[in-house]
Design the sequence.
């Protein structure tokens, strides 16, 4: 003989409330938790490595997580770094991707203002109208860190989400 468990009306109402709470809060929980994990597991180490590598504070301070976007079962997390020089050159991208590849290792720079590139040589002030400088090396700090840490963020997000979900649907005695 088979037993059939028929829940009480109170239990059905309680479950429906828990279900409504879950559907109402789940995206916010995922976004908040993912943001926290990415900031602590990825962005903090990226900033630290950039600082240790001699990257300008103006650049590493701009490394941020954009607002997470949830599309179906996927969460999109974008790490953004942007710092433009006065002439419009994106220095943050140049530090990440390097400038050696497209310029053959050296590129020409000009002073923005006359007489701004100057030095003293033999007691005489000399001025440069421009000169070649070596390119910036490719650092790939953001790319490497994201590759290294993505699995860890995914695992922690999954485990925290399941624990949160269980806490909502736990049964009260």
Sequence:
């Amino acid at each position: 003989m088979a037993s059939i468990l028929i829940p009480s009306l109170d239990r059905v109402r309680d479950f429906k409330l828990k279900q409504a709470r879950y559907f109402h809060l789940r995206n916010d929980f995922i976004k908040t938790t993912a943001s926290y994990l990415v900031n602590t597991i990825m962005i903090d180490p990226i900033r630290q490595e950039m600082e240790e590598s001699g990257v300008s504070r103006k650049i590493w301070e701009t490394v941020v997580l954009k607002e997470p976007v949830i599309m179906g079962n996927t969460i999109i997390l974008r790490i953004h770094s942007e710092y433009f020089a006065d002439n419009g050159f994106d220095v943050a991208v140049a530090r990440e991707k390097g400038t050696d590849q497209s310029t053959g290792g050296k590129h020409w720079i000009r002073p923005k203002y006359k007489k701004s590139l100057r030095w003293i040589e033999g007691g005489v002030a000399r001025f440069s109208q421009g000169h070649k400088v070596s390119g910036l090396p490719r650092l790939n700090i953001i790319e490497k860190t994201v590759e290294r840490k993505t699995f860890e963020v995914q695992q922690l997000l999954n485990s925290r989400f399941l624990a949160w979900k269980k806490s909502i649907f736990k049964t009260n005695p």
Notes: The CA atoms of residues 106 and 133 lie 5 Å apart. The mean pLDDT is 88. Strands lie at 64-65, 69-71, 74-76, 79-80, 106-109, 118-121, 124-127, 131-134.
